[in-house]
């Protein structure tokens, strides 16, 4: 049940990319942090939820050929490091594109997709992935 | 007058052609294409389902309307392919759009008209003053058994309509439904693919319900086919809606804008609603639309809609139109289609 609790707890960030903004230094964090690693104790009580638009740019990427079971129908697939327009850098899957279509600097936008499921009778995990923003 | 405040659609990017399906099952593709007038159909990615499609459509509707999820007072998702048998798709959509905890929500099922049943429900709630804005979604990743004629048409897509009383872009002047117990199409609990009672599919089911609902609406509104700029009907294939339109007295120029099945297939609960979405993309203030859905089992929902000047505000927002979604596509062969649609089955230890 640990994974179920975690999924439920992380829904705001996984489903709609809710991050945190330190109102002390204005830095934006995604995934959300409870404490700003720059301001430390000065950020306590000042980490406010902020919506991440989900737009960004590919900084680096790799093509995954040996996949976890949940991704077997999608291989090979692309995992990229994306610099979001709000500042944070995250790892995300690029979907609906062939690996040869991916370029450094390509603009991407977030989409809502299935990530995995806990077997045939378990819960379905949803979250953000990215597509090329043409 | 209440009506459509904003709208948004989503159609998966992948397509498969009937030639490819016919090649595998030893059918004549020209017979299929001539018989049902479907030239390609949309295919969901392996990581897409009715919930993800509903969320994308809902987000497009919110973006087009310049609204936040917090403004939505109810969400009804109509589909026959909800990812859970028990756990509403509407709850997933509400979390994904950041809707308020205090809201109405449920899933609907009425074959291909569950989405428009949701529209009627939201309209009633708006008119009753229960909510300011509500969202009705029709979305499906429909199933056709391998080799069955439904495999040529059953596709995927979704459309969300936000209905309210303020900033109305398309007034819903009237709506009505017809319902009967007709055994034209069904899927029993636990069965992966639906069954169709073939002799009931045409006249007793589709044509009886669609044409009667349309006639009743025109009688109620004292209108004739020529009084409408657009007409859109449920589209199980490319032939039925054009025949229904002609029987009722509509011309091609009135129904071609909303006729999408020839290129995306039958998106089931999203079918008529996505056709309506494409019409709203092109509509001008003052345009009149007759929209009639159909759900097997069977029933039809008819809507008389009049477009207002607010539609121009929606057109100004940079949100992907249905026509744009039809341009950016990738074709796959039957093997990839079968893999994506999980017709190739792994053991539970593998996937």
Explained architecture:
The complex is a heterodimer of chains A (134) and B (351). Chain A is built from two helices and eight strands; from the N terminus they run H-H-E-E-E-E-E-E-E-E. With 134 residues, chain A is mainly β. Chain A has a domain at 53-132: OB fold (Dihydrolipoamide Acetyltransferase, E2P). Chain A has a five-stranded antiparallel β-sheet. A three-stranded antiparallel β-sheet of chain A has the order 2-1-3. In chain A, a hairpin with a 6-residue loop joins strand 7 and strand 8 (124-132). By secondary structure, chain B is of the alpha/beta class. The longest helix of chain B has 24 residues, at 198-221. In chain B, helix 4 links the parallel strand 4 and strand 5. Helices cover 36% and strands 22% of the residues of chain B. Chain B has a nine-stranded mixed β-sheet with strand order 5-4-6-7-1-8-13-12-11, with helices on both faces. In chain B, strands 3-2-14 form a three-stranded mixed β-sheet. Chain B folds into two domains: 3-169 and 311-340, Thiolase/Chalcone synthase (Peroxisomal Thiolase, Chain A, domain 1); 173-307, 3-Layer(aba) Sandwich (Peroxisomal Thiolase, Chain A, domain 1). In chain B, helix 1 crosses helix 2, helix 3 (50-65) crosses helix 4 and helix 6 (198-221) runs parallel beside helix 7. Chain B has helices at residues 18-25, 29-36, 50-65, 89-97, 114-127, 198-221, 239-248, 252-255, 261-264, 271-282, 311-316, 322-327, 334-340, and strands spanning 3-10, 14-16, 41-43, 74-78, 104-108, 133-141, 156-164, 170-179, 185-186, 195-196, 230-233, 288-292, 299-307, 330-331.
Mind sketching the topology for me?
The complex is a heterodimer of chains A (134) and B (351).
Chain A: H1 2-9, H2 11-16, E1 18-22, E2 28-29, E3 47-51, E4 55-64, E5 77-84, E6 89-94, E7 107-117, E8 124-132
Antiparallel strand pairs in A: 1-2, 1-3, 4-5, 4-7, 5-6, 7-8
Chain B: E1 3-10, E2 14-16, H1 18-25, H2 29-36, E3 41-43, H3 50-65, E4 74-78, H4 89-97, E5 104-108, H5 114-127, E6 133-141, E7 156-164, E8 170-179, E9 185-186, E10 195-196, H6 198-221, E11 230-233, H7 239-248, H8 252-255, H9 261-264, H10 271-282, E12 288-292, E13 299-307, H11 311-316, H12 322-327, E14 330-331, H13 334-340
Parallel strand pairs in B: 2-14, 4-5, 4-6, 11-12
Antiparallel strand pairs in B: 1-7, 1-8, 2-3, 6-7, 8-13, 9-10, 12-13
Helix pairs in contact in B: 1-2, 3-4, 6-7
